Amino acid sequence: MATGPPLNCDPVEPPQSRSPSPTESLTLRALMSTKDAGVIIENDVVDLMEQTGVRVTIGGHDQVLTVTGNVEAVAKAYNLVIEQLVSSKPKKHAVSTSNVHASIRLLVPHSLIGAIIGRKGMKIKAIQDDTGARVVVSKEMLPQSTERIVEVRGSPESTGRAIEEIGKCLFEDKERGLGTVLFDPSPQHQHDNTRGGGGSSHTGNNGAERQKKGRTRSKRSSSSSGQPAPINIQTQNISIPSDMVGCIIGRSGTKITEIRRLSGSKISIAKAPHDDTGERMFTIVGTPEANEKALFLLYNQLESEKERRAGREAQQQAESQQQQE
């Protein structure tokens, strides 16, 4: 049984910080432009990254770089990527690499954004102050996913240090990332997601083998007798803060009924909190595709409620100020 993340709407600080063990792994994904993906593949940067002890996949079409290993090794691997991308840029004048701008767009589960931001934004501010890099968190989740972009900008050195600090934050609270619907920039979505003019990247023969190492996709198959293969039904549990359960159920159950209908999953809700946090357990049963759709819809509903509450609070503050005047 897969267990999903508690879906908190407000940034939270991990209750306890610890140093990651060298044997424990973290997976950190980054969204690459077609040009940058081609640079990485054609210059055998994947081989160099794997020498740091990480597992690497990158697809010429997917444009997603996935690095798995211990936090320090993952950070070193991304440092190699940054160095290669900076060195590939045309140099019109003799300048030190510390003055060259670098940028990496990390893909971070929505449920882990709070670990990076911290309480009242203190964590992200500390990362920026300590490393000198600029860290920008997107407000919206990427299409058909529960991931958001965290862009890290600055000199190669500062960007690399910031990525390591972000990796530590994600590692400390990584259990919350379980059940994430990964962003998939498949070819049919390229016109929406490609930046800088788009187009397909030319990776050459050198990159063909690397492209095959990209994320494998599940396919429906039929038996030799022509009968359809058994349907793969999975069960997934996620925790929802009690004060947000009502916004998901909706008046007379209209919202949860719509989510069930659109996703095709069966969704049941515990009548009482399952632990001292006061969170209620949602159980989702269906095919992997249906469960992903259900999770995506649940996140969207939570985001909408969060925005509604923030707008209502801002309006109340404005009215209060007018009354005082």
UniProtKB/TrEMBL annotation:
<keyword id="KW-0677">Repeat</keyword>
<feature type="region of interest" description="Disordered">
    <location>
        <begin position="180"/>
        <end position="238"/>
    </location>
</feature>
<dbReference type="GO" id="GO:0003723">
    <property type="term" value="F:RNA binding"/>
</dbReference>
<feature type="domain" description="K Homology">
    <location>
        <begin position="232"/>
        <end position="303"/>
    </location>
</feature>
<feature type="region of interest" description="Disordered">
    <location>
        <begin position="1"/>
        <end position="23"/>
    </location>
</feature>
<dbReference type="InterPro" id="IPR004087">
    <property type="entry name" value="KH_dom"/>
</dbReference>
<protein>
    <recommendedName>
        <fullName>K Homology domain-containing protein</fullName>
    </recommendedName>
</protein>
<dbReference type="Pfam" id="PF00013">
    <property type="entry name" value="KH_1"/>
</dbReference>
<feature type="compositionally biased region" description="Low complexity">
    <location>
        <begin position="313"/>
        <end position="325"/>
    </location>
</feature>
<dbReference type="InterPro" id="IPR036612">
    <property type="entry name" value="KH_dom_type_1_sf"/>
</dbReference>
<dbReference type="InterPro" id="IPR004088">
    <property type="entry name" value="KH_dom_type_1"/>
</dbReference>
<feature type="region of interest" description="Disordered">
    <location>
        <begin position="306"/>
        <end position="325"/>
    </location>
</feature>
<feature type="domain" description="K Homology">
    <location>
        <begin position="100"/>
        <end position="171"/>
    </location>
</feature>
<keyword id="KW-0694">RNA-binding</keyword>
<dbReference type="InterPro" id="IPR049786">
    <property type="entry name" value="Rnc1_KH-I_3"/>
</dbReference>
<feature type="domain" description="K Homology">
    <location>
        <begin position="24"/>
        <end position="86"/>
    </location>
</feature>
